[in-house]
Design a protein that fits this description.
- The chain has helices spanning 31-37, 40-47, 72-76, 104-112, 116-123, 127-134, 234-238, 360-366, 374-379; strands at residues 144-149, 152-154, 157-158, 162-165, 184-190, 193-198, 210-214, 219-223, 242-253, 258-267, 270-279, 282-287, 308-310, 313-316, 324-329, 334-339, 344-347, 350-353, 381-386, 394-398, 403-407, 412-415, 429-432.
- It has 444 residues and is α+β, with helices and mostly antiparallel strands.
- A hairpin with a 4-residue loop joins strand 15 (324-329) and strand 16 (334-339).
- Helix 1 (31-37) packs antiparallel against helix 2 (40-47) and helix 5 packs antiparallel against helix 6.
- The protein is elongated.
- The two termini are 53 Å apart.
């Protein structure tokens, strides 16, 4: 018996068992004892409990489950019990928790300050918090689950893409639900989707097909290349067409495979885009006119095919460009050149920010196996990319000495390799949860 569950009228011995309340022959309740120990309502309930005719020994029973069984799963969901109330005296009403007494405007202000992971936990507390959390999702950045990368066999060969979880709490995602993914390489990661491009080259003027995967829901969509009939006189343009790349534009709903993607090529010195609209497996293409305001006065080969999503826009880097990159606004589907900011300069190694991100000489001292000659060491190590997962880390490439991540703030250097010892290939794609999650998103 637990004093926080039952209130006693008279003291009960600490070692008392149920037999303390039974008659001398242990075949019936002792009404006098029961009524002396419990108040009238509890005593009447106890006296209605039948006693086994065959008898039996006392046993332990867990009072906080339906069938009296104890389990660790039950225990971890129980709060620390409050101190026992006095055995006698009036029962005080339970005070309302302070957080529940807050107005919805104040509670919403608190939820808005939570991280995405904490906001999800809060949304599971009750219907009221779920409703308020759904109004705060737009301001919370999507949580990072981990990274996708192709482990490298050599500099020119790689394995199928693998998922590296951020920590042990993240589910182990895999692309094994799409066997044909072995013929593709990851090309973009956006809003919980992966876009993959064929691993083989195609003749000039031919646009490839693409594979789009949702690792969280294990769904896939194979997109055919844009039909030739979408562009008038396409036969003429194909002679000079140079395919650049493919990118994910937007996603209509996080729980459905409904999204838009863009295919980007250069036709006679001007960019042209095709937009694919996919609704649960059905794909339709439309071609946009050439952007006559944007002149590509260099060989399109200098465009880097993989894009970067940042500040609500999509960017393509132009190799060896000293003053600009190509930008696309997903809302207007208009191309433009983004000039290099004044605080960014140019050197033979790329764009240099005024802030010194990493001291290459100190970094070379931390990487094992490099040549002793200072000049050769510097040539064998270079920063390949900033971590797209917004961790502040810098990805470091070497010439045969592995792949690393370096955090300028803490000075920590980590080797990026699989359990089998293979290094991660370039680039490494951050994978964010589709946001907001389906149970907080408005109906599609």
């Amino acid at each position: 018996m637990r004093p926080e569950v039952l209130r006693f009228r008279a003291p009960v011995p600490d070692d008392a068992t149920v037999s303390f309340l039974l008659s001398d022959d242990l075949r019936a309740w002792s009404g006098e004892t029961v009524r002396a120990v419990f108040d009238e309502e509890v005593a009447n309930a106890v006296l209605q409990i039948p006693i086994s005719r065959r008898g039996g020994s006392d046993f332990l029973s867990w009072p906080l489950t339906k069938f009296g069984d104890y389990s660790v799963r039950v225990l971890v969901h129980l709060d620390t019990p409050e101190p026992s109330p006095p055995l006698t005296g009036p029962v005080e009403p339970k005070a309302t928790a302070a957080i529940d007494a807050l107005p919805e405007d104040h509670l919403r202000d608190i939820l808005r300050r939570l991280s995405a992971a904490d906001l999800l936990r809060a949304a599971l507390a009750c219907h009221r918090w779920r409703r308020l959390a759904s109004r705060c999702c737009a301001r919370a950045p999507p949580p990072l689950l981990g990274y996708f990368a192709h482990p490298m066999e050599t500099e020119r060969s790689h394995d199928d893409a693998v998922f590296v979880p951020l920590d042990a709490s993240v589910p182990r995602l895999s692309l094994d639900f799409a066997p044909d993914a072995s013929d593709f390489q990851v090309y973009d990661s956006h809003q919980g989707l992966l876009l993959l491009q064929p691993d083989v080259g195609l003749p000039k003027g031919i646009l490839p097909r693409f594979l789009v995967l949702d690792p969280a829901t294990r769904r896939r969509a194979l997109l055919p290349p844009p039909p030739r009939g979408t562009v008038p006189d396409d036969r003429i343009w194909r002679k000079s067409r140079h395919y650049v790349g493919f990118a994910l534009l937007s996603r209509a709903h996080p729980s459905k495979l409904c999204f838009e993607a863009i295919c980007f090529a250069i036709d006679e010195g001007h960019p042209r885009a095709w937009v694919a609209s996919v609704d649960d497996g059905h794909c339709s293409w439309r071609a946009l006119p050439r952007d006559e305001d944007i002149v590509v006065d260099f060989h399109p080969w200098w465009f880097e095919g993989r894009c970067v999503h940042a500040a609500g826009k999509i960017y393509w880097h132009i190799c060896n460009s000293t003053d600009r990159i190509l930008s696309l606004d997903p809302s207007t589907l208009q191309f433009s050149y983004l000039p290099v900011p004044a605080e960014v300069g140019w050197s033979d190694k790329g764009w240099d920010l005024e802030r010194n991100i990493v001291d290459m000489r100190l970094l070379c001292d931390m990487i094992p196996g490099l040549p002793s000659d200072p000049t050769i060491r510097t040539l064998n190590v270079w920063p390949s990319d900033m971590d797209p997962g917004r961790s502040g880390k810098v990805f470091i490439n070497t010439l045969g000495n592995g792949r690393y991540s370096f955090h300028p703030g803490t000075g920590k250097l980590e080797r990026l390799s699989t359990e089998s010892g293979k290094d991660y290939g370039h680039p490494i794609f951050a994978y964010f949860l589709a946001w907001p999650p389906a149970f907080l998103a408005p109906e599609y």
